[in-house]
Specification:
Largest interface: A-B, 28 and 24 residues
Radius of gyration of chain B: 21 Å
Strand content of chain B: under 5%
Radius of gyration of chain A: 18 Å
Oligomer: heterodimer
Largest sheet of chain A: none
Order of helices and strands of chain A: HHHHHHHHH
Structural class of chain B: mainly alpha
Helix content of chain B: over 70%
Shape of chain B: globular
Shape of chain A: globular
Number of domains of chain A: 1
Number of strands of chain B: 0
Distance between the termini of chain B: 33 Å
Largest sheet of chain B: none
Chain lengths: ~220, ~260
């Protein structure tokens, strides 16, 4: 089971390393979307500083959702997904490995790019660190929920939009606590409560989402 | 589950899955639907009469509070119907009971309508009391997210052409959503709270006049009966659509055309 997990994970990372530009697209989307907000709401530093955590979180959410819609599509098209599900190893480890690979390729680069967002939105250093920490806890949730949505909408017309409509309501708690934690730090209070809740959400999602994703994959490929 | 081809005899013992056969369900609901409509309309007239003409004017809110008689029952129904929908979707998935999946899919539009009505009446009520149609308050926001959950479910069902896959995929989504509903509710609660606390709860004495409570409960019964009537009607349509190839539907349609 563990062998399958690592095998699928390394395979996805290797596939991404062969298509480097594709792998960088979510990060590019994230940065472009971030830079649209000052153009839209105006360049006043105070306002930008105030809305920065929410903007960064919403952009991370959208970058995750837009990239995750293709998570199983390639494997479905060339038949390897069916082979993986036919293999004696459980579909749960396949689902967990695909979502982990997605997080390593999408979530992690966004976290690394977050200090840049902190600089351009004039955020304080503690707030930027809190933002990175909240994204560290939160983006895996987005990848896991996105994986579930991708499995449910596998091979459907308008799959991308449908995935966003299906998954975004489920992702609201992560958004609330993730952006809320930074707000707490900015107003000088302890954000440990928000981080604990975000951590609890992460644990619950890590336990539950691969099960649901595996079931969804079986439903979608049957 | 009894086989659908066998027609039920009157002596057969009544079991839980007896009406899971679409043909029996169809026969049963043909007289349940009018009954539900009568109950819904009767209780709605009584509830609205008591609410609008008998119940006293509120001291602080004046007459504007009277929208509560529509607002609260619809909000209750919106929350309840999601769980009912997830329950039947889960039954349909677990026991491979087609009718349960059809019922779940028939509930979704009604639930979405109740969520929308709760938001709409809330906006109309918010204008005179809070001075604004919309605030990003916890209960409003969680009802809005509930509406989005319904819309996601409806969209998923409609995007999948294969009914078997649609039944199962939407059941999974409804179950995941129902696990998330309390999490969303409490996270939004902690995020922001302006809405008044619950006025009616099972553990405390109601903090409202008896006539107001009577009107609200009458309206709640009316909403339940309406939901039953509409869900049964929609399920009957689903049954006819999906069972179009069967003998009993052909016989039914043939009879209707001939008469």
């Amino acid at each position: 089971m563990r062998a399958v997990f690592w095998c699928v994970l390394l395979r996805d990372l290797q596939l991404a390393s062969r298509r480097r530009i594709d792998a960088l697209l979510p990060l590019a989307f994230f940065l472009v979307a971030l830079s649209l907000f000052p153009l839209g709401v105006g360049p006043e530093p105070e306002m930008l500083r105030e809305i920065a955590p929410g903007i960064v979180w919403v952009c991370a959410l959208l970058a995750s959702m837009l990239s995750v819609s293709q998570l199983f599509a390639g494997d479905m098209a060339d038949g390897s997904l069916e082979q993986m599900l036919l293999a004696p190893a459980s579909a749960i480890s396949v689902a967990a490995a695909k979502c982990s690979a997605h997080w390593l390729l999408t979530g992690l680069p966004l976290i690394i790019a977050t200090p840049v967002a902190g600089l351009v939105f004039d955020m304080s250093a503690p707030a930027t660190i809190a933002l990175m920490f909240s994204l560290m806890l939160g983006t895996p949730i987005l990848s896991l929920l996105g994986g579930l949505g991708a499995a449910l909408t596998l091979g459907l017309r308008s799959g991308g939009m449908l995935l966003i409509l299906v998954v975004l309501p489920l992702a609201t708690p992560a958004l609330i606590f993730g952006a809320g934690a930074v707000g707490m730090v900015e107003s000088g209070m302890s954000a440990s409560g928000h981080f604990s809740l975000l951590g609890a959400l992460l644990i619950t999602t890590t336990v539950g989402a691969p099960l649901a994703t595996a079931a969804a994959l079986r439903i979608s490929t049957e | 589950m009894p086989p659908t081809t066998k027609t039920g005899s009157a002596a057969a013992p009544l079991r839980f899955f007896n009406f899971a056969a679409p043909s029996r369900f169809y026969a049963l609901t043909s007289w349940l639907v009018p009954l539900c409509w009568v109950v819904a309309i009767g209780f709605a007239i009584a509830g609205l009469y008591i609410g609008f003409f008998v119940a006293p004017t509120d001291r602080t809110q004046g007459d504007s509070y009277r929208i509560i008689f529509i607002h609260v029952p619809t909000a209750w129904m919106a929350m309840l119907l999601y769980l009912v929908m997830a329950f039947w979707a889960g039954i349909g998935w677990a026991f491979n009971a087609r009718l349960a999946s059809m019922v779940a899919q028939a509930i979704a539009p009604t639930g979405a309508m109740f969520a929308f009505l709760a938001l709409w009446t809330g906006a109309l009520w918010g204008r005179p009391t809070w001075g604004t149609y919309w605030v990003w308050d916890a209960r409003l926001t969680s009802t809005l997210i509930l509406l989005f959950l319904y819309l996601g479910y409806i969209a998923l069902v409609n995007a999948i052409d294969d009914t078997r896959r649609a039944d199962r995929a939407s059941a999974l989504l409804a179950l995941v959503g129902s696990v998330n509903v309390p999490i969303i509710y409490f996270s939004v609660q902690w995020w922001n709270t302006l809405h008044q606390g619950a006025t009616v709860s099972l553990t405390a004495a109601p903090k409202m006049a008896a006539t107001m409570l009577t009107a609200m409960l009458l309206m709640t019964v009316a909403c339940w009966a309406y939901a039953f009537a509409v869900v049964f009607m929609r399920t009957r349509a689903h049954v006819l659509e999906r069972e179009a190839h069967t003998g009993w539907v052909a016989a039914l349609v043939g009879r209707t055309i001939r008469s």
